[in-house]
Amino acid sequence: MIELTAQEVAEATGGRLHGADPATAVTGPVVVDSRLVEPGSLFVALPGEHVDGHDYAAGAVEAGAALVLAARELDVPCVVVDDPQAALGELARHVLARVRADGDLRVVAVTGSVGKTTTKDLVGRLLSPEGETVVPKGSFNNEVGLPLTVLRVTRGTRFLVLEMGADREGNIAYLTGIAPPEVGIVLAVGSAHLGVFGDVDAIARTKGEMVSGVLPGGAAVLNVDDMRVTAMAARAAQDVEVVGFGTITSAAVRAEDITMDRAGRASFTLCAGRGIVGRAGLDEERAPVSLRLVGEHHVTNALAAATAALCLGVPLADVAARLNAAGADSPHRMAVTERPDGVTLVDDSYNANPDSMRAALKTLAVMAGRDRRSVAVLGEMLELGDESRTAHDAIGRLAVRLNIKLLVVVGDGAYHIHEGATQEGSWGEETVFVPDVESARHYLDEALRPGDVVLVKASNGSGLWRLGDELAAAGSAAAGTVAPAVEVAR
């Protein structure tokens, strides 16, 4: 973060100083976890469901924190505010405005029901060679994670890439209020968090808040393969350019001649048309792209990232070359491990909804082909509300239609995947239900054999990522082993 005095922190957050010298300098990072304190840090004491950050304030100061942002007076130097989480957002808004006023910082923000984290990572890959770029680790995409990412900017930051998640209407509007983007990307409208939103139209309205939040003179980057996203163009201000990406011929940035290899990786021709912001006066250009990312659905993510980079003036040839070199930067997202015993593990256990589950199963079928056994280890898709039973049943039926050879369903919440597969005509040992992660591990220890291609996928809250780690650890000598996901995201 840029250096601020305690007085400046108080003014930015609407708080009051208690036990702090107004001239005290905050020179380190802003943190909400006292274990991450560095000398000069600002520690934000967030009250939680199980722990209260105020109880760790003294330890944070002992570890080197210069100041604490708190909801009550403490026996340490602090700024007292009504709501530390809201104050964190106000501080981020203040810092970003100051850096923007003094430099040439551009903000790119990504939202959508699927693909946010991968697209955010790809945008970071495309922009980093152009100058100092701040990209969140994992999925820091909510009212806490996003301000913490914003507060990492320095005077020299040229690009700030943000992921914006939502579990209720108004979330994206709040986040764009903290960090209004020059380029706002909307990927897709799906059924994630349907149990909270109630219907897909409410999800579409919420994702559309991104378009409304784009700064004057900026660009709204919309997936024109998704009709609900295309309709969001009407929410763009008159001085905001709408740039469409997709596979249809009318897309300003599009993918043509898409092919898939046996490893589940897509190749295509990247085409960029005329009149895109950042490409004034340039004719249509084309460049070949061969992704290292596994799954055809990553074509959409790559197109979104490419469009954002093109809008910011990155040449098409450079965009294509950087996409070709980009690997997976965040854990548990189609992470491939080739185990020494001949098993290929595809760990996509960070999150799941019906759309991403279908895409992952199709990728599994492509990777296994006709000569390897496909194994799908699936857990619950959370927050689907009244649609949960139907959605899980449909995934089980799809697994049968894709000829997945072995389906292992983990946990009571996912049981209807097993039920759907059974109703579709799978029986005997083709579909297996186990009650928990430990049972799944024991079963797979006996069931897996050389040559298997294994997909592990579920919502993060189901805990199936632990099984992904354990299965990958069995191939610890191979590339692709990843660490557990610990971020809370949506």
Your description of this structure?
This protein has 490 residues and is of the alpha/beta class. 33% of the residues lie in helices and 21% in strands. The chain has 16 helices and 22 strands. A 9-stranded mixed β-sheet has the order 9-10-8-11-12-13-14-15-16, sandwiched between helices. The longest helix is centred in the first third of the chain and has 19 residues, at 84-102. The two termini are 25 Å apart. Mean pLDDT is 92; it is low at 476-490.
Helices, strands, pairings?
Blueprint: E1 4-5, H1 6-13, E2 16-18, E3 25-26, E4 30-31, E5 42-44, H2 57-62, E6 67-70, E7 78-80, H3 84-102, E8 106-111, H4 116-127, E9 133-134, H5 145-150, E10 159-163, H6 171-178, E11 183-186, H7 194-197, H8 200-212, E12 219-223, H9 227-230, E13 241-246, E14 253-260, E15 265-272, E16 285-294, H10 298-311, H11 316-325, E17 335-338, E18 344-348, H12 354-368, E19 374-378, H13 388-401, E20 406-410, H14 415-424, E21 431-434, H15 437-447, E22 453-457, H16 465-473
Parallel strand pairs: 4-5, 5-6, 6-7, 8-10, 8-11, 9-10, 11-12, 12-13, 13-14, 18-22, 19-20, 19-22, 20-21
Antiparallel strand pairs: 1-3, 2-7, 14-15, 15-16, 17-18
Helix pairs in contact: 4-10, 6-8, 10-11, 12-13, 13-14, 15-16
Number of strands: 22
Oligomer: single chain
Radius of gyration: 23 Å
By secondary-structure content and strand pairing, the structural class works out as alpha/beta
Provide a quick synopsis of the model.
The chain has 490 residues and is of the alpha/beta class.
Give short descriptive properties of this protein:
22 strands; single chain; alpha/beta; about 500 residues
